[in-house]
Amino acid sequence: QVQLVESGGGLVQAGGSLRLSCAASPTNFSIYTMGWGRQAPGKQRESVASVTSDNTSPSYADAVQGRFTISINNAKNTVYLEMNSLKPEDTAVYYCNTVAGRSVSSASVYWGQGTQVTVSS
């Protein structure tokens, strides 16, 4: 099992910045990737960014490319999402996720409880 605890959400004006953090507590599991998804009211959850556990191969949704940066601290099992030039359309609940397990073949996706990000115009 893996527990994920997010922090850093809040209210910010358009053009501003926020930094989200997510600490994972795996129990005898290895973490393979960590990432962030978001869900706006009335919309489906979408992937925002992800990164491998060795902090290589970050990937981003087109909507956030160039504005958001994902990074991971392996020693702390913590993933960060630096969000710059925020837009009102970035308003959503942001969920941390991880792919973890005893092996790659048995790994599963785990999700955090979410943190609200609201961008005012």
Describe this structure in words.
This protein is an all-beta fold. The chain is 0% helix and 58% strand. The protein has no helices and eleven strands. The chain has strands at 2-7, 10-13, 18-26, 30-39, 46-52, 59-60, 68-73, 78-83, 92-101, 108-111, 115-120. The strands form two sheets. Strands 2, 4, 5, 6, 9, 10 and 11 form a seven-stranded mixed sheet that branches. The protein has a four-stranded antiparallel sheet with strand order 1-3-8-7, with no helix packed on it. A hairpin with a 6-residue loop joins strand 4 and strand 5 (46-52). The termini are far apart.
List its salient traits.
single chain; 121 residues; mainly beta; 7-stranded mixed β-sheet; 0% helix
Secondary-structure map with pairings?
Layout lengths: L1 E6 L2 E4 L4 E9 L3 E10 L6 E7 L6 E2 L7 E6 L4 E6 L8 E10 L6 E4 L3 E6 L1
